[in-house]
Specification:
- By secondary structure, the chain is mainly alpha-helical.
- Helices cover 79% and strands 0% of the residues.
- Helix 1 packs across helix 12, helix 5 packs across helix 7 and helix 7 crosses helix 9.
Length: 277
């Protein structure tokens, strides 16, 4: 029995070592650095600098992420419901092909695409002017916070929709057929039968999208304009301009805290749902 336990530990050891080296060690190092002063002693000075210099950027990052999450939830549920419930198979196949395209485009390429598309003299405004729908003098740039939201939603839309559509397709067909036999419309089937069952999957997708949006540097750096900015830009600025790793690490801890708060809300809802069942 003891030899069997030793063998099990040996099987788990490589994975545990990789997790320790690649995740726990860097995270622990950042935590220590975020609370270290000039003379290598415990200090709250990095955190004080973060909240005195970057409080607007923290609020800005949270607002950007929350707006993006709401739009992602609405659009992904709408497209997924069309794919799953639509009787027109050709439309659903075409839609399924289109929404998967952003999955294969890196964030930095997406940022460059959106920069050339949303600028004042970008592709979108040029197309509107060419079709006579806009005046060249009245065109406006969508770079800035609007462009960041559009880029985040466009990029993460494929990921969230793929998970939600898969969860919807896994719903027992007999439930949908029974509701149709009782005269329920597709909208009612969606909100009363399908959506409650896919909420855990939607929550996982949105939590993972939150982590992704708060960790991307290329999008806010290339599309953002001026101040306030997102926390990833602030972290890069502190390191590249001042070599200030304690404040950069403190900004990372704040980003991690935002992710933890949003994840806590999802986990609380998920556990409450399971308890109710």
């Amino acid at each position: 029995m003891r030899n069997k336990n030793v063998h099990l530990y040996l099987l788990v050891a490589p994975a545990a070592l990789m997790i320790s080296l690649l995740f726990i060690w860097p995270m622990g190092s950042s935590l220590i650095t975020a609370f270290t002063g000039k003379y290598a002693q415990f200090s709250l000075e990095p955190m004080r600098k973060v909240f005195s210099l970057y409080s607007q950027d923290i609020v800005f990052s949270v607002v950007i992420v929350l707006i993006s999450l709401v739009l992602l939830a609405v659009i992904s549920v709408t497209v997924s419901s069309v794919v799953v419930l639509s009787p027109w198979q050709k439309v659903t196949r075409l839609l399924g092909l289109l929404y998967r395209l952003p999955l294969f485009i890196p964030f930095i390429v997406t940022a460059q695409m959106m920069r050339t598309f949303l600028a004042k003299n970008g592709l979108m405004n040029n197309a509107l002017v060419a079709t006579g729908l806009a005046n060249p003098l009245e065109t406006v740039s969508f770079l800035g916070w609007k462009g960041i939201i559009i880029t985040f939603v466009w990029k993460q839309f494929a990921f969230v929709t793929l998970l939600v559509a898969g969860a919807m397709a896994a719903v027992e067909p007999a439930q949908i057929q029974a509701a149709r036999n009782l005269g329920a419309s597709r909208i009612r089937i969606l909100f009363t039968i399908i959506l409650p069952q896919v909420m855990p999957t939607l929550g996982v997708a949105l939590v993972l999208s939150t982590v992704m949006m708060l960790s991307v540097l290329s999008v806010p750096l290339m599309i953002g304009t001026g101040s306030p900015g997102m926390l990833t830009v602030d972290m890069a600025f502190r390191v590249n301009s001042y070599g200030d790793y304690p404040v950069a690490s403190a900004l990372g801890i704040v980003s991690w805290g935002i992710c933890v708060v949003l994840s806590w809300f999802y986990l609380r809802y998920s556990l409450k749902e399971k308890g109710g069942q």
